[in-house]
Amino acid sequence: MRNGRSIAAAAVGVLLLAGQVFAYPKIICFNLSPPELVMPGVRRVAVMNFEGDGGRNASDRLVSYLLEKDRGIQDVSKGFFSGKAKGRTFQEWATTNVFDIVERTQLEQVMQEQQLGMSGLVDDSQAAQLGKVLGVDAIVTGSVRYEHRDRTIDKKETKTKKVDGEKVKYEVKYQCLERTVNATVKMRVISTETAQILGNKEFSETGKEQKCRNEMSAISSVQSILDDVLKTTMADAASYIAPSFTLLKKDFAKIKLSKFKKQADKAAKLGENGELDQACLIYQAMYEADPYNTEILYNLGLLNEAVGNFGKAREMYESALFLKSDEKDYQKALERAQKASEFSDVLRALGLPVTTYEWGVSAAAMANATASKVVVKGSNTDRQPVRSAADKASGVVVRVPGGIELTVLSREGEWYRVQLLGKKEGYLHKSQIGRFK
């Protein structure tokens, strides 16, 4: 039975590995995503101390997160048994610190002058008054509430010892202390121009720690666990009002047409490796040849989405969806691109740089990207004659070494017209070709 289980486990492992090895390439990168609360015209913001125990910590963390340039980018899984890879973005212009934040000392000084407390509890009219003095577009206020619970847990485990040379099982009973902290953060954003509430959101999180036996006295304090909880809640709060980077990890669509298969697989692999220009070059050449291929349209959408060309991505996704309206992946992709495109317009209106990525895709490069390739027969020390016409009796243009790769321009029966160095052309017979690519 044990051998049977081992074989079954090995078989499962082989299947898992096979699934990983033959998985189709993906686009893996981080894209700038809009916040839940988009606030057109809001550029300068003041964050007041949140009310309640832990309120100062909460507001400080929020400010810290809002000042980060690449919030959300983290290491990503490289795949089965392959560890982690550093997260990356191809959107060079993108940043998560889109607000000018009023310095705490300036805010405190104005609050004192206006005879207002720093607790975060200001009414709408006071917020408008503060806004005029500070020159901000919005004020963020809020509160922190938490409760904690300690409980003792009785546990037991089975151990083995030897008695008179025989193994005897026995139970050991012990106690553990479990400490739980539940925190709720309420945040609101007030327009200083209209004194209206722009956004109101509640964030809840639970922190838990357990220590057993003689380590029970070393359990973290309630305040320490609360601080850890606030790391998560305030990161969520920052993403509520400011953009964040989120992982785009999507399979490239597999091109079904046999005439494109080799080049399409190559393009997908280039895209997964981060060589987006080369991937786009191949897909764009395919698009020129077959503009109604939904898989090509979708893949071009993914590449444009990855570099931040959201308008072009939306165009590609719309075309794919027009041809295949029931494809859910296309629908979700279009929704992402539309939201990102609209938010880009908001950023531009605030004076933030949002640039269009220029692909290095020329007509000549596209033609070369999808052209067939041949590898000349023989080794580097061999020389194969390339003739001026599709005829063994014609003159020799040049003799090329074996093993080199040449681009095929056309085919005439058993002869292949190939591109040579120095913009020259010539003909190779099929017997001179080692393999096709």
In short:
By secondary structure, this protein is α+β, with helices and mostly antiparallel strands. It has helices spanning 2-21, 55-67, 104-113, 124-134, 222-241, 261-272, 276-289, 294-307, 310-323, 328-349, 363-370, and strands at 26-33, 44-47, 76-77, 84-85, 100-101, 138-163, 166-191, 197-212, 244-251, 373-376, 383-387, 396-401, 405-412, 415-419, 425-429, 433-436. The strands form five sheets. The protein has a five-stranded mixed β-sheet. It has a five-stranded antiparallel β-sheet with strand order 15-14-13-10-16, with no helix packed on it. Strands 1-9 form a two-stranded antiparallel sheet.
Structure in words:
With 437 residues, the chain is of the alpha+beta class. It is 36% helix and 30% strand. It has eleven helices and 16 strands. The chain has helices at residues 2-21, 55-67, 104-113, 124-134, 222-241, 261-272, 276-289, 294-307, 310-323, 328-349, 363-370, and strands at residues 26-33, 44-47, 76-77, 84-85, 100-101, 138-163, 166-191, 197-212, 244-251, 373-376, 383-387, 396-401, 405-412, 415-419, 425-429, 433-436. The strands form five sheets. It has a five-stranded mixed β-sheet with strand order 5-2-6-7-8. Strands 15-14-13-10-16 form a five-stranded antiparallel β-sheet, with no helix packed on it. Strands 1-9 form a two-stranded antiparallel ribbon. Strand 13 and strand 14 form a beta hairpin. Helix 6 (261-272) runs antiparallel to helix 7, helix 7 runs antiparallel to helix 8 (294-307) and helix 7 (276-289) crosses helix 11 (363-370). The longest helix is centred in the C-terminal third of the chain and has 22 residues, at 328-349. The relative contact order is 0.11. Residues 14-20 have low confidence and may be disordered.
